[in-house]
Amino acid sequence: MSWSRLARDDAQLRVFDGGSGFPVVFQHGLGGDEAQVRGNFPDEPAVRRLTVECRAQGESTAGSTRPFSIAMFADDVLAAADAHGARRFVAGGISMGAAIALRLAIYHPERVAALILARPAWVDTPAPANMRPYAEVAALLARMSPSEAKVAFEASATGRLLAREAPDNLVSLLGFFDRPDPALTATLLGDIAADGPGVTGGDLAAIRVPTLVIGHGVDFAHPLAHAEALAARIPGARLAVIPPKATDKAGHVAAFRSAVATFLDQILPSLESSS
């Protein structure tokens, strides 16, 4: 396995390239990093995994280009695939990473051999209601100190709702208040919460590659209804409903890995024979 740096505009992106076999480009969620992917990705079957830590996340720098967007991150991922010689690959990701993968499949269909959409936070519209808590965190960070903003968010109607109905989401959101650059974090969260993958229902219906969608309940940020909608609208897509992360983290991770491993086991023989 190896790490490298990729210059994009004035940003420096950290890229993981590990394993051998058919390439799988798998992306983290908003505010995540390669470790999030590593913690959920199966050890088998043998594949070559590439993960780009998106701008202002992990150990990648932010650069000066604004706004941050899913389109920007998708372009960065494609540039990393080019730099690493991955001409055709399985595209996948978690949450924001799923949106990046979906955009790649629609805008660059010649590059994407299969698709894995895990815990999707978007379907085909920008700024969905489930992303509003991220926008609220961004707004608080933009006008308060991190400690004051954290207290205000926990006490807000959204904070109380998440504490009752999606505690795992609340823990994740509270972590943003502890990041080292509050202004940058506010910009990142605000920009992405207002964005979307830039696709239409017609685009979804036109996808013609094997697709796995993974969803679960007890998750305000990643509604099971989003996973169900994508699976229903992408022809031939398979839906895997796994245990909620909030109530059974070990079972969630095991089922996530199993779903991805089973899907890859089923599609890799044909992909490898055609490559």
UniProtKB/TrEMBL annotation:
Q: Which InterPro entries match?
A: AB_hydrolase, AB_hydrolase_1, AB_hydrolase_fold
In Pfam terms, one family for this protein is Abhydrolase_1
Domain of life from the UniProt record: Bacteria
The UniProt record lists the AB hydrolase-1 domain at: 23-243
Q: Which Gene3D superfamilies match?
A: alpha/beta hydrolase
Protein name (Swiss-Prot/TrEMBL): Pimeloyl-ACP methyl ester carboxylesterase
